[in-house]
Amino acid sequence: MKHSRNKFGLSDRTSSVILVIIALLLIVIVAYPIYYVLIASFSNPYDVYAGKTFFWPSGFTLRGYQAVFADSNIFRGYLNSAKYTIIGTAFSVVMLYITAYPLTQRDLPGRKAISLFFIITMYFGGGLIPTYLIVKETNLIGNMWALFLPGGVSVANMILVRNYFQNSIPHELIEAAEIDGCSKLKTFLKIVIPLSLPIMAVMVVFSMVAYWNDWFTALIYLPKPEMAPLPLVLRNILIKSSATAKQSSTISGGYAELNKITEMIKFSSIIVAAAPMLILYPMVQKYFEKGMMSGAVKG
């Protein structure tokens, strides 16, 4: 049986083998850093720096995780991050939908001008200080809504959602529903939303990752320690550990031991913060891929 050949003179089987090898190499390149941090979090930091943890943990220890979870704020940080992520994701997805869908309506007055207005904000912004002043004047300092309202709509994500609506939901279907007596709101709720679950999954993942990893916004707008999200709590633990190590530098052996713990905390903190998102992503991967491909097509 003869195998067809491509323009490079390779058979289909050979091409498939090469593509599989390239894909495996890319997987290793992407996944190995995460794996390395994971095994380093269970290893003696001196063995890590000595290159003894290339494939397996060396000097197995849980002291890094013990130091992280010994802080009484860690569980409160988890709860805060979960609350901020759930509320922020729901708010962002709703805002994206009610912003993107009207821009797909051909009879919307000034549709091109409104789209241009959104696009301009991708290139020009007021910056941190004007944003802070606005948040302060609206009495949102110390309020969790300061995490959501200033950046409630990501224009790049809004464009993805708009393109999905335009390319994946036939306009004729919308017109047929309206001819049958559906209002625009009912059409949006009963037809558009159920047919756009793939792009919704993409936006949920994007928003969840953004809110879960956000510590800088909380550092600026949430001065109360009890409101700190998990990344900010982990940052404070690391800073406290580093400061303690420096203060112990005059004690014989004290600095080396505390510095060792600080290095373990660095790796452990990354795993503690990333674990929820790493667990969640496989659950929505199939929707993520479909929605991303459809939303990225230019309409």
From TrEMBL:
Query: SUPFAM superfamilies this protein is in?
Result: MetI-like
Signal sequence bounds: none
Cited Gene3D superfamilies: MetI-like (1.10.3720.10)
Q: State the CDD domains in the record.
A: TM_PBP2 (cd06261)
Occurrences of domain ABC transmembrane type-1 (ranges): 78-289
Q: How does it sit in the membrane?
A: Multi-pass membrane protein
Q: Which PANTHER family match?
A: ABC TRANSPORTER PERMEASE PROTEIN MG189-RELATED-RELATED, POLYGALACTURONAN_RHAMNOGALACTURONAN TRANSPORT SYSTEM PERMEASE PROTEIN YTCP
Family matches, as InterPro entries: MetI-like (IPR000515), MetI-like_sf (IPR035906)
Say if the entry is tagged with keyword NAD.
Answer: no
UniProt-listed GO biological process terms:
transmembrane transport
Record carries keyword Protein transport: no
Q: Which UniProt keywords apply?
A: Cell membrane, Membrane, Transmembrane, Transmembrane helix, Transport
The principal localisation class reads: membrane
* Record localization: Cell membrane
Q: Which domain of life is it from?
A: Bacteria
The UniProt family comment states: Belongs to the binding-protein-dependent transport system permease family.
- Gene Ontology terms: cellular component: plasma membrane
The protein's name: Sugar ABC transporter permease
Residues that span the membrane, as ranges: 16-38, 84-104, 116-135, 141-161, 191-212, 264-284
